[in-house]
Amino acid sequence: MYLTEKIDADLTLRLNLLDAERKLKGESMKIIEIIEQLQRHCGDSYFGKKIMDATTRDQILYGDPNQECTGIVTTCYPSIDVIEKAGQAGFNFIVTHEAMFWNHGDHTE
Hints:
Elements: H1 9-24, H2 31-42, E1 45-46, E2 49-50, E3 72-75, H3 80-89, E4 93-96
Parallel strand pairs: 3-4
Antiparallel strand pairs: 1-2
């Protein structure tokens, strides 16, 4: 996803408070809920393109967005090293600035 330029301290604080509130209640936060918070904060488009539209690079490439988020990694480049370190740390949501694949659109097929 390429939303990093639009995330600010206010959103980070809201996500942290929401996460803390859920932990106190024994609840977890799903990856899709975090994405929906980002979309509410940023709007449904970025530079005129719909976020999470099939024509943009803002996509979930792998995994189930309905699973519990165990940690978030933000990075400029989704290198193998970053992915491995995220996995070792137990984090399952990686937000990147650059594309994972060099094919305009991060097509995985």
